[in-house]
Structure formats: C-alpha cells, structure tokens
Amino acid sequence: MSDFSNYATPQGAATPTPPGSTSSSMRKVPILPKEDFGISHMMAIIEYKGTMPKTPLPRLHPVDELLYGRKLDLESLHTDVRGIYAESFKRLEDMDKTLDDFVQVALTDI
Questions:
Q1: How far apart are CA 96 and CA 88, in angstroms?
Q2: Which of 44, 59, 89, 95 is most deeply packed, by most CB within 10 A?
C-alpha cells in the first residue's frame, strides 16, 4: 500500500442558515426589464406587412414548374444574401449550362 491510502478528503461543514429562513426564500427572482429591445416594434412591422395584399404570381406551365421551378430574381435579394450565396449561384448557373449542352447534344443525335 502507498502512503496516500490513509489520507481522505475532509468533508466541509454545511453552511449555516439563519434561523427562520429556508433555502426556498433565498432564491433569486429573475429580473424582467420593461424594455423589450424593439421586439414589439419589429412584430408590428411584420404583422403590418402580413396584412398587405400580395400580388399573385403568373402560373407556370406544369411541365416547366416540375422541371425548372420558378425563376429566382437575384436582384430582389438583400445584397448581403447575394454576397453569401454568390458562389453557389454561379456554380448552379454553370451546372444549368452544362446540362443544357448535354440536352442539346442528345437532341441533335436523335
């Protein structure tokens, strides 16, 4: 046996509580600020814009809708969003061009 086998960690004494008080009365109540940091203003704008009438989009041909979907207007996106997804948009456009080229080759071979 080693010399450390006889040592033990001492148990700390419990912290005394004043008479008549319990641990439940010592709980801290969360502080709720009156300022909501603009959330109510933001929600009012969202609710207002939700009540505005929406202009219906023109219907696509069902085949075009299934194959290609609705064309995305990149200029309608926020500039930061366009910047974040610029590389992905470029890669998708390149893939579309490659697929169009394959379809053209397949159609000319018929």
A1: 12
A2: 89
